[in-house]
Design brief:
heterodimer, A: 3 domains, six-stranded mixed sheet, two-stranded antiparallel sheet, B: about 325 residues, alpha/beta, Rossmann fold, 9 strands
Chain lengths: ~475, ~325
């Protein structure tokens, strides 16, 4: 049973639930406690011990149902089982009469016997045993399917079976040839069943591996190369990322340095000084949250990136409270309302349709910023600019950047172009760069995550 | 806990029956969870929407085991001094003042600083003993002679710092007080943590707990709960009420009514001597079931169809 439990934990892990060694120990204890007599109680025990949230609870239930359904083989064989059984009965009779004469070759391997007897139960057991021996639980990708199926068949004694078939087919005894044909059919069923079994196992054990591979790939590929159909996967990824970042950094409490004296705390910590209050504590606490102003370029030149930057912006909007989001081509347009009103894809489509395309004009945008938002920007605000700084040879208005630099806590520029292109063509990046606390290339999700990690860390640590 | 109450909670069925006797109808999952928690001495993290009986579960368990229920309500800003213990500073100060004379008596005849210090040391820690300790819920729970049920309510409202502090309490059932040393539970309490999921709890805390999600009950379970909680309600009306509430839950509402609201509503209807659901009556009492003006407005159009369906379900 231990082995079965371990396999089950593997399935649970493959389903994307984190199961630590101590979890498995605790769960095994729970399972030992409730016993195996009642399927429902066992399932409940797994659910309460392994799952850590509502969705995980459902997942564990699903995995349980899938894993502990033992009828794979017989189900796969069912349509033929009557046929095989009756056929093999006949053959068995003949075989007995023949074997007395001991003249013709006959089925000798265990596998062949089982197949002829139509003994699905022991076949299933054999298959499971073979599967365990070849390590089927390590299957990850669909490309490994036939390999594992082949391995299992070999383990179950395919070679002997084939020898048997060949030997019986050679003779000229009609019953022996008929039996060979029967075995050949049975072999087909067997191979089908094994394939089904492997497929089913893959769906349990490999579930996460394929997804992880794809997510890894998406994280590190350039945003401009990611295709539309991966958009929803990206959405999940970005959301996860934004959520993690924001829970990590959003709530930080700080003790105020004035207000009402926290007498108890002060007294307690100053007992050591004979009650002379060297260290004072104050009752008022304030929650220090980073305030973020994000401007995202959605002009033609960054078209390929814009959708993903907007996606990120939307996710940030979902998880952070104090964030102001703007998009721009020639003018600064607040998009917070749109993000709040529409679901992500619609919101992005709407923004792109209403405001997208056209050449970018950083100068006017900065003037807009100066006009509309400069009053709100203080030494707690971080300004994040997403854009390529391609200004179409218009006035760059660096003086606004200068004020921004002075007023804001940090100004960060994320440019999708590599740094070598920053001074080429109409890019004004070199003019803006001196006024940024940080200016970096950012064209993959990994970049984005790292940048934001830095950003939020700095914003909350109070530097 | 386990040793003292061996004869209680012997099987999952047993738990279900005991709870039913205490008027708490629990699903098999809840019973299994309590059974495991009791036997393996693990805390239970109960999640689910407000009003499905999370707190009630802890109360009922305490009632059945016949042990006190120690409740710690969490809120933002809750810290050790309010959850675990605090020194009675005023008393300490007062005593030092009062005992000033005694102290000088004590020091009489001592020559030199060293000797004086030694004398004081021989009466060491008087001021940091349990006499001057103000016990708070967690400390109380660890100190109960006969064990207890510890309910840490709405743990998601507390700060991450407090959550980290809970880890030691929940896994070892012990706490460290610098002045007194480590204090171990006399009898390990059965711990329930409830959460409304307003904040994601840390994995470390989750890992130490059994996870129990209590959803809204289905029609069958809710009828059973209602018959146990409001037994005076007629069979037809009970079915109608349950059917109606179940339909209301399908709507897109700000606050979906949960079991406690169903029970309140049933009691209201009983008080008003209703025989069956009537549109006028339902409209008047809808505020018991729904807590937001917008939700009550949203009900407007559906009211009649829901009532008709409820009548059909009850066989009228």
């Amino acid at each position: 049973m231990q082995q079965t439990l371990e396999d089950f934990y593997k399935v649970i892990r493959a389903a994307g639930i984190n199961v630590s060694p101590s979890d498995t120990i605790e769960t095994s204890r729970s399972v030992a406690l409730v016993g195996y007599t009642n399927r429902n109680i066992l399932k409940n025990a797994f659910q309460v011990s392994l799952a850590k949230s509502e969705t995980e609870q459902d997942l564990v239930g699903e995995c349980f149902d899938q894993f502990f359904s033992f009828d794979t083989f017989s189900a796969a064989n069912d349509p033929h089982s009557d046929n095989t059984a009756s056929g093999s009965d006949g053959i068995n009779d003949k075989q007995e009469t023949k074997s007395e004469q001991n003249e013709t070759p006959q089925a000798e391997s265990e596998l062949a016997k089982m197949l002829l007897e139509g003994d699905t139960a022991s076949l299933a057991t054999e298959m499971k045993k073979a599967a365990r021996e070849v390590g089927l639980t390590d299957i990850w990708f669909f490309t490994q399917k036939s390999l594992y199926a082949q391995k299992i068949m070999q383990k179950m004694g395919l070679r002997d079976l084939q020898n048997d078939i060949a030997a019986m087919g050679k003779g000229d005894c009609p019953s022996s040839i008929a039996q060979a044909g029967e075995l050949r059919n049975a072999k087909e069923y067997l191979s089908e069943s094994v394939k089904d079994f492997v497929e089913q196992q893959l769906s349990m054990y490999g579930r996460n591996a394929t997804r992880n591979l794809r997510e890894d790939h998406l994280k590190s590929s350039k945003l401009s190369n990611i295709e539309q159909r991966d958009f929803h996967v990206m959405h999940d990824l970005v959301r996860k990322m934004a959520k993690r970042l924001s829970t990590q950094y959003s709530k930080k409490k700080k003790q105020d340095k004035r207000g009402q004296l926290d007498f108890r705390k002060t007294l307690r910590s100053n007992v050591a000084y004979d009650g002379v209050m060297f260290e004072t504590y104050w009752k008022t606490k304030y929650i220090d949250k980073p305030r973020l102003l994000v401007m995202c370029d959605i002009s033609g030149s960054v078209q390929a990136y814009a959708r993903f930057l907007l996606l990120f912006l939307h996710s940030l909007n979902d998880v952070m409270q104090r964030i102001d989001s703007y998009v721009f081509t020639g003018n600064l347009i607040p998009v917070k309302d749109i993000f709040e009103k529409y679901p992500v894809e619609q919101a992005i489509d709407k923004i792109m349709a209403d405001h997208g395309m056209g050449g970018s004009d950083y100068g006017t945008t900065l003037l807009d910023l100066d006009d509309q938002c400069m009053d709100d920007i203080d030494n707690k605000t971080t300004v994040l600019i997403l854009g390529d700084a391609r200004n179409n040879f218009l006035a760059p208005r660096t003086e606004v950047m200068q004020t921004l630099h002075l007023r804001a806590k940090r100004v960060i520029w994320l440019n999708p172009e590599p740094a070598t292109f920053w001074n080429a063509g109409d890019s004004e990046m070199y003019k803006y760069k001196p006024y940024c606390h940080m200016a970096k290339t950012c064209n993959t999700l990994d970049h984005l995550e790292r940048m934001l990690d830095d950003l939020l860390k700095a914003a909350t640590s109070g530097t | 806990m386990k040793e003292l109450y061996k004869d209680k909670f012997t099987s999952v069925d047993d738990i279900q029956q005991l709870f039913e006797g205490a008027k708490y109808i629990c699903s098999e999952q809840i019973a299994t969870c309590v059974y495991i928690a009791h036997n393996l001495q693990k805390p239970i993290m109960v999640e689910g929407p407000a009003g499905v009986g999370k707190t009630e579960l802890a109360k009922t368990t305490a009632q059945i085991l016949d042990v006190p229920l120690v409740r710690l309500q969490c809120y933002e800003g809750l810290d050790e001094s309010k959850a675990l213990y605090e020194w009675k500073y005023a008393k300490q100060l007062l005593y030092t003042q009062l005992l000033k004379d005694k102290l000088s008596e004590l020091l009489e005849g001592a020559t030199g600083l060293e000797q004086s210090m030694e004398r004081i040391h021989s009466h060491d820690d008087l001021f940091f003993s349990e006499t001057f300790l103000e016990p708070r819920p967690l400390y109380k729970a660890l100190h109960e002679e006969l064990g207890c049920v510890l309910l840490i309510d709405e743990v998601d409202k507390s700060d991450p710092e407090f959550e980290a502090f809970l880890l030691e309490v929940l896994s070892e059932f012990q706490v460290s007080i610098p002045e007194l040393g480590t204090i171990k539970a006399k009898i390990k309490p059965l711990v329930f943590l409830t959460s409304n999921n307003s904040r994601e709890m840390s994995d470390a805390l989750k890992r130490r707990c059994l996870h129990l999600y209590v959803p809204y009950p289905d029609e069958k379970l809710e009828t059973r709960i209602l018959s146990s909680r409001v037994p005076e309600l007629s069979e037809t009306l009970r079915k109608e009420v349950v059917s109606f509430v179940q339909q209301v839950r399908e709507l897109d509402l700000k606050k979906v009514p949960s079991i406690s609201e169903t029970i309140d509503w049933a009691k209201t209807l009983l008080l008003l001597h209703s025989e069956q659901l009537e549109p006028a009556m339902v409209k008047q009492t809808l505020n018991v079931l729904l807590k937001f003006e917008t939700d009550i407005d949203a009900m407007g159009d559906h009211l009649r169809t829901f009532i008709n369906k409820a009548h059909k379900r009850s066989g009228h």
